[in-house]
Amino acid sequence: MTDWNRRSILAVVGAVVSTAGCVSDLGGKTTTTPPQTEPTQTATTTKATSETTTEETTLGDWWVKASKEPNPDHSISLWNRGDEQQTVRVRVVRRATDETVFDERYDIGCGGVRRTLYNLKDANPEGVEGFSICAEFVESAGTRTTTGNQSETKQTTASDSDATESQSRGCVSISTNECYGDVDLIITEEGSIDATYAIC
């Protein structure tokens, strides 16, 4: 082999070795880059869990605060959705003392007539107090009769001896706080009495 051929072969081999070294360096740099997908997913999951916990705590705190916040402004209304006029006795009793703060009878017309009868703020509750509200049919005609602040009883008194309590009756108990709404005493089309109220 001549000197010229030997030099050519060495030059070609040196070029190949130099190129292989460059390719190897580039490949090494590429494979050492760490993946980014897993840490990003972990951070997102942690954030979602944190937001959910905060929302649940806020709703719970609001309910507790509303149930302890006094609000006596709760009206009591009587509806007649039936097709006959009815006479109804409505009583409101303070649960802590069994004091009857409201006890009256009403003749109410038919066909969706509504009357607001009483508001619990008129009982002057001290903070948050509980009250029972009952409505029941009586067999009587004429105008309403006020019986005054006497203890609640299922027996007829001298002031309403002309009235007989029927078996159809609706009662609810509410408290004078921010959670409770107004009370509706409803004479249904079927002839019964439903007592309903709103609550948070």
What does this structure look like?
By secondary structure, the protein is an alpha+beta fold. It has two domains: 3-28 and 37-68; 75-152 and 163-199, Immunoglobulin-like, CATH 2.60.40. Helices cover 30% and strands 34% of the residues. It contains two helices and eight strands. A hairpin with a 5-residue loop joins β7 and β8. It is globular, with a radius of gyration of 41 Å. The chain starts with a helix and ends with a strand. The relative contact order is 0.16. Residues 15-34, 42-54 and 141-167 have low confidence and may be disordered.
Count of individual helical segments: 2
In what order do the strands lie side by side in the largest sheet? Answer: 4-1-7-8
Using the 3D structure, state the CATH architecture of the largest domain: Sandwich
Order of helices and strands: HHEEEEEEEE
CATH topology-level fold name of the largest domain = Immunoglobulin-like
